Each structure stands twice: as C-alpha cells, then as structure tokens.
Hints:
Elements: E1 2-7, E2 12-19, E3 23-31, H1 33-37, H2 44-66, E4 75-81, H3 85-102, E5 106-110, H4 111-117, E6 130-135, E7 140-147, E8 150-156, H5 162-172, H6 179-187, H7 212-228, H8 233-262, E9 266-270, H9 277-289, E10 293-295, H10 306-318
Parallel strand pairs: 1-4, 4-5, 6-9, 9-10
Antiparallel strand pairs: 1-2, 2-3, 6-7, 7-8
Helix pairs in contact: 2-3, 4-10, 5-6, 5-7, 5-8, 6-8, 7-8, 8-9
Amino acid sequence: MRVLGIETSCDETGVALYDTEHGLLADALYSQVAMHADFGGVVPELASRDHTRKLLPLIQEVLDDAGLGRADLDGIAYTAGPGLVGALMVGAATAHGMARALGIPVLGVHHMEGHLLAPMLEDAPPAFPFVALLVSGGHTQLVAVGGLGDYRLLGESVDDAAGEAFDKTAKLLGLPYPGGPQVARLAESGDPSRFRFPRPMTDRPGLDFSFSGLKTHTLTTVNALREAGTLDDAGRADIARAFEDAVIDTLAIKCRRALDETGLERLVVAGGVSANVRLRERLDGELAKRRARAYYPRGRFCTDNGAMIAYVGAQRLLAGERDADAMLATPRWPLAELKAPATAS
Ligand code: KG4
Ligand code: ZN
C-alpha cells in the first residue's frame, strides 16, 4: 500500500511517500525557520499561509522523486493534531480534497505517534514493547509502548517541555530561534565545572518532569553575570553547558527509572531534542551498563517531517482505519487517548 504523508502541524511542511512493502520511497521538507526567526518564534498565521504556498509543490516533488503519479496512491495520511489549528487545517483540507478526488481512503494521525514510531523507519527498528522518551518543542513524555496504539503514559512535564526550555535558554543567551541546536553548539566550548544547575524533580520518586525552574535558574545566572560585567562569550558558553548538562542528566535519570519500573530493555528516544548528540552519548553509555539499548530516528527525522506521518498512516490505513467525511484538526489531543486499530493483533 502506497501512502502519502502530510505534516503541517507547526513550522515545517513535510511530505513523504511510504510503501508498506518497499519502505520509504521519497520525502521532502520545507522549513519555515528563517521566516519566523525575525519574530523570535512561530507566528501561527504566517505558518498557515506558508504551508498553503509550499504544500502542493512538495507533494509534486515527492511524487516526481518516486517516479509516481497521484493515481498510484492508495491512501493519504495527514497530521490531525496536536498543533497550531490553522496550520493543521491546511494539511487536513489538502489531504481530504485529494483523497476525495482520487477516491482513496484518508486518515488524520497523531503528531506524537509519528515521532514515537519514527525509529521504525531505520534499518534495525526496535521490537515492541519499549519505553519511549518523547522530547520535542511542545512535549516531554515517558510512555510505555506495547504496540501500535498501545500507549501508557508513565510521566510528563508539568510545565515547559525540554525543547521549549532549550528555546527559552537560547533567547536568554541572545541566540536565534530555534534555540536547541544553537545552545548545543555553544555548550561545546563551555566549562562543565563552572556552574551546577538543578536537576528538577529527580530527588523524589516519580517520572514527571519540570523545566520551568531551570529556566528561572538560567535567567538568574545570566543576570548575575551581566551585573558583574562578565557575561562574555565564555560566560555564555559556560551557562549553555550547565543548562544542557542539567537537562540531559534529568532526562537520563528518569529514563533509567522508567526502565526499572517497567522491566523493559529497549528505549526509543524521539522528537526534536533527540537530535542532541550529547543526550544520545549519555543515554547510550547509561544503557550499555544495563545491557539495554536505545533507538533513535536518523537526524532529519528527529524534528518534524512527513515520513513519520506517512509511516503511522500506512500502518493504520492498512489495518482498515479511515476518516469519515469530515476532516480533523485537533490542537489538543492526549497521546494516551489513541487506540490500537481494531484488526491489529
Ligand atoms: O519535534 P520538533 O521538531 O517539533 C515539535 O513537535 O515541537 O522539536 C523541536 C524542538 C525545538 O524546541 C528545538 O529547539 C529542539 O527540538 N531541538 C533541539 C536540538 N535540535 C532541535 N534541542 C536540543 N538539542 C538539539 N540538537
Ligand atoms: Zn514534532
């Protein structure tokens, strides 16, 4: 079954073609980052308009890359939420319009289920069951995954998401949006021994996270250096390093706990922050000690992309799921509400 996947939940227009027999056939991405950078963050109305401009040309591009035409499609999947409602509606309306014209099934899928299963696009995908750490700009969650649609929430952030904390720290340090990769780059030259930032909620049991206090700690440190006249390049790098170390340590401690509690030996790490190289090194080291293994998407499938949506859509369409006539755009949609397809074993 050949499925076209469409992702327009935020600031990337992602399109891909996934074949349930032959795997990923083509994928294309247009990032709006440069457009939003002037505003220091995503401007929802501009995002929707840009998706409208870029989506159809990208669909044509992936079809051309795969040497296929629209008539070769067997189904269409699109991100139905969570995300920015206007941006979601561009993908949803396009998917429903095309599917109606072609007489093929269409399905709205969950953006975080896409991230969660993105490692399935790699050569050695994880087998079920596993623990997933989802770390994106909007979510930080630990999930026990039994199979497609079998998701038990183990813990999540009670305030800021890890990616959001990276983005806010970048702003405090005068770095452009999106901040995660910028903070990570700056941290490389930072002195890890100069500051020690708190590891929030690691001193008590449980698998929830909180990153807003860490943001305040970063702000206080930036202000202290500024007042002392020592907020130079080295000072900024040392702060970036202390912040990154605190986030990584916190995530690693909670992952260890989640594996202990569930007795599972496989950890999937996905979402934008899973692109962080030092996070991967730390988790790999941690897991090697316990004969467990971590699985990640390739770099470009850590952040938003159409391939993960095509993959999830293909699994569910193959199992017989499809939308009714109405398109879906659901800005808030808890992952734990998802169900396994009725025909899945
Ligand atoms: O999954 P994603 O593309 O979008 C959402 O669904 O939110 O994640 C974007 C987030 C941003 O907050 C970005 O700063 C962060 O992922 N990010 C990183 C890195 N690359 C992207 N954070 C830390 N280190 C990175 N290398
Ligand atoms: Zn995402």
